[in-house]
Amino acid sequence: MRFVIITGLSGAGKSQAIKYMEDFGFYCIDNLPPTLIPKFAELCHQSQGTLDKIALVIDIRGGMFFDDLSSSLEDLGKLGYKYEILFLDASDATLIKRFKETRRAHPLLADGSIGEGIASEREKLKYLKQRATNIIDTTGLIPSQLKNELKNIYVEGNISDNLIISIVSFGFKHGIPLDADLVFDVRFLPNPFYVEELRNFTGNDIKVRDYVMNSLVSVEFSNKLNDMIDFLIPHYIKEGKNRLVIAVGCTGGRHRSVTIAHILYNYLKEKGYRVLISNRDISPYRGREG
Prior knowledge:
By secondary structure, the chain is of the alpha/beta class. It is built from nine helices and nine strands.
């Protein structure tokens, strides 16, 4: 029996996650009082395989009942039931933005600031995050990407660590991505913007990639970048980092940065890492240098 407890920060995507888990064949319950978890696990165990995939959302909406979660997890262990904890997280800025968009009050501080509510909730959930089997940071993730991450974990089972690598191409003219952990400037590489027949294409087009990579400097840089990321990733994983954002920038964010970002994406994908890619400034075309 696979028994998954989904928890995490309010606004981090738990409601969306439980819908996807149901799509994957899990029997799902949202906001079950924690004191009922051991009894429910026993009932599932007695179903003789009828209920063999369970997902429960447990979070601070339970109010005072949520405080019983720790003892309920201990009871599960004593009864010999194995369980997993999926913890959904996101940056404070992302959570605040989501609350403002939905015009919801934070469940911990309905009359206070959203930021104070988030801080209080983080402190309350700290022990759960430390015990989590899997952590997904939904900052910057669109729903389909969250679904793919859940599918990777609970359907395909291809997990080696909790690190999600997000690669984003961008243009310095439009500003550096605020959530970037690593920023690489590729404005020294050959620029297709100055080739008239390539100007209106992007790094997603093979003719642009061939032009950029038809240079020893580009090839050498790409190889050195791969080596550096290979060196860094194990250290980030060891430190417990669950999301790494690698930003690759050129002038306009349409040609060189897109090319290098996709080469790095393919390289890391082939090595088995959980990696996402986005091209922030590729559209619309503004006639700017790329």
